[in-house]
Each structure stands twice: as structure tokens, then as C-alpha cells.
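Protein fold
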Amino acid sequence: MCQQILLFQSFVFFRGVKDEGPSMPTLQLELDEFIICQKPLELLGEESKLCEIPITLESTELPTEDTKRFQVQYLLFRRFTPDQSPFGFCEETKLHSVQLLPIYQTGSSVTDHEETENKRELLSLFCFFSLPHVGYLYSVGNLVELISTYQYSEKSEQAVLTPQFLHVITSENLQCFTVRCSAAAARDEDPYIDTTVKACPPVALDVCTLRMQLFIGPRAICHFKNHIILLTKADTEDITERRKPTRRMLSRKADSIKSRTNSESEPGWNLYIINTVSTIQLYREMVDYSRIYENVKTESCIHLLSEAHLLIRAAIMDPHFLKSDEKEELLKAFRESCAFLGDCYSRYDYHLALPYYRMSGLSVTEVLKRLVSEGDEIQTYERGFIFYLTHSLNEDLNEELNKESANKVLQIFCLADPVQLPHILCSPCMRNVCPLTAVEYLQKVEKIMPSVVVTLTKAFMALKMGDMMMYEHEMGSYKEVTLVCGFTGQPKLLRQHKEGIVVPTEFAVHLKEMQPGLLVAATVALHENSKIELEEADTFFKILCGNSENTIPQLLVDFWEALLVVCSQEEIFQELLLRVTSQYVWRISKKQLPETKPLKTTEDLINSCNHFGLIFPWVTSIMLMGSPSDEDYHEDISKLQSLLCSQSVNIAPALPVLEPLTEAGNVGLTIHVLCSTRLGRYEEALDQLLRRCPAAAVLYAQHELKGDNQAMWWNKLLPELCERTRLTGNDCPVLVSSLKETLSVVAMELELRDFLSLLPEDGTAAFFLPHLLHCSQRRLLT
């Protein structure tokens, strides 16, 4: 797409014509002429189409597929007209410089400039144009906006824009101004730059004049890399004399003769190539100059340091940055400028100290050394510094303050923000803090604002001191439910991050041994409040219990079971169901007992969680005939059966998990029949029961064969029992008993004719007579 920027300077003049008619007023007749000017106007983006100036694209080459796609996009329209300003003449409002400045993707993202120069991606586009007394810099990217206005101290002749500076020539000077292109481009490159992680000085900073150099008669200027090329014209005649009226009275002929005869009076043209000051040198000068205002006028100090920072940022965004000899020095200066800005903003009620210190790469200890004076004298700490310190210490940094620095931090927060003390003490950075000193500060906070978090933090410090009496006193101050809420308010009492891994604290280790139920309940609350992820909890409990990566500790199973009670998210509880099912199956198949006593029994889970169902009577009947060895794993077996007796588990995904129990005797039979039933395979379930445990077949049928499945009583169960009884005779009383129970049910449900049709031809009539009589009597009664 071809984008054409429209910049117009519009002057519309209407000259009045004398009207000789008698009706024209005398005053109007005395007017020789008058001028009517249109008002100044600015149209940005899509609105610039309203300028109603048609643009037609004409191609100077043969049409191609590319040229067919060319189109005009209106970006900017601005009209200037004379006003009542001191330089309000038409000649003084003519445009003399127009320039487009592209900025490409940050140089640090380019791996090989020679190969990628033609593939550079445009990041930002800027448009600059200048009048004799004022210049305008626009960003014309996705959003067209005016970002800077330059007011010149005297009439300018020409201007040229670079990514770092604006160079302007006047009748006697070469002036240099700061620009905001790098600030705007940085935001185009990273829309999230103004956060607590990183920052950039604003685009709307007031522009500064950096340098002013005297030259005789500058006429033209251009820019190439780090050079300014200046063309000047030096006249030998006196400028003041040339402006006298007597000089204007001389004839042109005399002037021309004089100019031809006197060669010394001819103007002299000079070409200058000026090397611009290196970025690093100018940066150092601006930093040194900013120190004048460091303690007097902080806003001016911030302004100068922001200008210096933008100079470095513009140099880093240059596509040639990676091959620059100053690369390392520029990066060092960038970090240094961030540190200086962090120092300034820390003395303000402002949040920018945090992102600038982060970009500087300084540790918390180094920042403390920069801002906190030595000794015990009372110092005032501004909210910018407290904001930085609070956020930094509340993060999981791999940095530990020494005892002296940690105690100093306690003193700072006690003076500036005592409410944050319990949270600060839980920071990994504060591991070396003196616990006795911490308790003293916490007791002061407790008098002002008591809370369960303060109490738990005091208990934490008591553990570090080994004062179990104090620990038990603090933990006994609240009920367990309240303590759980306290751990939710400050999760770092239990878990911290170290190199990206969740690790338990000393508090969690102690609770594992003394109050595992409280630990599990607190971890469940953390998960439900999005303070710990499911995978993080797995790692937490494995590290806490000292288990290997592939071994599941009982405390983790307790956590899964407790989480099933409260979890309401479908995908999470299905994952939990598979996990606990897998663990139950593994223990049963491997004959592995849990290393600690489970916190909840099957009955507890059935009463508290609808994902665990009442165990069916036919399942209990099968288990009563099981081997005594199953009693050792009764809890895991009953929990697994309870899960499958509910409607929560998706059976199809669980089948591979249940596969190891195929040959597990009566336990395996119950699992197979439960799965077949959940999948709607009732005939398969009956075959399994009749083959392996016929005594439970009728109980199964009574529980499962209802409604649409009731016909299986006479279509499946009755014929199978008759056949099996015939083959075994009276040697299997269980089959005979089951057959009688089945006949009783069938006689109650079928008509006499249908019932007779089901009886086997080789059966003993005396065996079936009671059921026939019962069936006929039921028919007569109805």
C-alpha cells in the first residue's frame, strides 16, 4: 500500500473591488483593498479526508500487480493562516522544511544487519514540518497525533530531523533540540512498557535546546549518520548599511557594475561537515548538569535525566546498534540512566521508581545502599521508595538480604508502613532477619491493627527461635478455619518460590508433622483462591514429604480428596478423580500401604463429597466373600468402589487406569461389573457375576435391572439360571436359591401365559408350581 501524507499551507485571498455606485458608503469607498483568510485547521487520520483535496495516483511505468494495489491514504491535513502574532505576515508562515522519519524494529532484534537490511520492519513513522518560527512533529503510525511543538527563538531557514535531535539553522546559528521519537517508538514496539516491570519517559516532555553554535550566513543543512553538513554564504558588505534607505536608492545598473568590477565584494560560500557529539559524551554532560538540580528542583533533574535516557534509548533502537563499537557502553549507560531515574522517582510519591530500578538491574541491597544512610538516625522515606521496596520484597527474588540489611528494612517499614511488616517478613529476601527483632516490631503492629496474619507471622518467628511455648500460644489464638484464612492472606507463610519451583517453608514442615489437617486445608484454600496451581501443589507436597518424582505421598492424596469436596470446576475435578483413582489402583495392585494414616475415611468422603457414592449392596455382597488379605487395603478398595458407585467419574478415560485390577479377585470383579454397568453393558455384567459370583447376581439385578432394563430378568437372567441349575443339579444351592428369587420377581411382573412360555420343557413341575400359583392368584386379584 502506498501512503501519501498531505501537508498543505492554504492561504485564500479575496481582493475587494471599488463600487462606484451611489449607494456605496463613503467609508467603504476609501478602502483600497482587504484580505479574507480562512481559519487555521488541523485534521488527523481518517478526518483528513474532509479537506476535499482530490489526489490521483499516476504510474510512470507499465502496470503490474503491485501498482494495481496502490491507493491513497489520507493521514494528515493542516492549514496555516496569518494571525495576530508578532510574525503575522504571510511570508513568515510559509513551510520551509518537510521530512518523514522512519524508525525500524529495535536494533537488538536484528541478528545480521547486512542480510536483513532489506527485510527491516517499519516500527514507527514520524512527520516533521517547519515554519520560520515554529516546527511540528507528528507520529503517523496507527494513530496520528502531534507529539512535539518547537518554538524557535528567531526566524529559521531550514530544519532537519534525526532519531535523536532536531537541527535548525537561522540567519546566524545552528541550533539543536531534543526529540521524542524514541519514546513514541518504544511504546509502538511494546504496548505494555508503562507497567511495574518497565517504563519510558513520556512523549509529552517539554523540548530542550541542547546546543547553539554561531555561523555566518547558514543557507542549507542536511544530515548523514553522525555528521551535519552545513552550507553557508558569507557577505562582505555591512548588513546594517545594506538596510539603509540610501542604499535602496542606488540604481540596479550601478550595483551590477560594482559587483562585476569589485570581486572582493562577492559572497563567499562555505561547506562545513560537523561531527555531532557522541551519544555517550552528551549523555555524561546531561547527567552532570542534572546534579545541579538534584536537591533543589527534582522536577528539573528528572527532566534532564529523562532526556539523557531517551538519547541512549534512541541509540539502542538504531538498526546498526549490534555492530556499534559503543554497544556495551550504551547498554551500561542505559542501566545507569534507569538507576538515576529510579533514585529521583524514589523521592516522590510516585510508582515509577519500581520499573526504572528493575530496568537498571540493581539488586535490593544495592538500592538500599544508594538510598538509605548508614547509622541509626531517623530518615524520611518517600512513598516512591516504599512502593519499590514493597513490590520487590513481595516477589520471589533469588536474593537474600544480610542480617543488617534485613533489620534495616524492618525499621523502614515500621516507620513508613507498619501494616506491611508481616508480609515483608514472609519474603524470601528476609530469611536472615533476626526473629526476636521481628517479633518486637510485630507486637507494635498488633497493638495498632491485630490480625490473624500478624499472629501467624509471630508464630513463624517463634518457630525460627525454637520457642514452642510462644508458637502454641499464637496458634491457639484462633480457630482452625480462621487460621486457614490467614494462610490465604499470606501464602508465603507456607510456600515460596525458589528458581521457579514451589518449595515449602519451615512453617509448612512443622505443620506436616504436627497438624497435617490444617496444612491440607490451607493448601486447598490457596488453590481455590488461585494462590497455588494444581501442579505446584503436587511439587509442594512431594518436596515436603521427601518423595521422589514418581512417588505420590499420602498427604498429596489427602489434598486431592479434600479438593474434591470443594472443587466446582469440571475439568479440574475430572483430573482429580483420575488422579485419586490411579493412586487407589496402584496401591491395591502393588499391595502398597500409605506411609501415613489418611486424613479421611471412606465414610467421611461419602458424607462430605457427592463425588463419592454409597457402595451398592451387591458390591458389599461380593466383598464379603473375598480373601482376608483384602482387609489390609480395605480403605483404598472402598474409596475406589465408592467413586465408581457415583456418577462423577467418566468411565471411558478411566478404563486404562483400572486395567491393573483385572486379576484382583473379588475386587477386580466388582470393578469390572461396575464399569460394565456404567457403560450400559448389563448382559456382560450378568455373565461375569453368574460365572464368578452367582450369589450376587440377584442382588445386582434387583439394584440395576429396573425401568427399561427390567425385561432382562426374564430374557437373560431366568434362562441363564435355569440352564446353569440344570447342568449342576442340586449341587449348587446358590443357583437354586437365585433361581427361586428370580422366579418370584418374574411371576410378579409377567402374565400367566408369558410366564408359562418361559419355563423350560425339561423342568420339574413341582419346582415351578408355587410360582405358577402365585402368578395366577395375582392375576385373579387384579
Remarks:
- The first strand starts at residue 41 and ends at 44.
- Residues 1-31, 109-118, 238-261 have pLDDT under 50 and may be disordered.
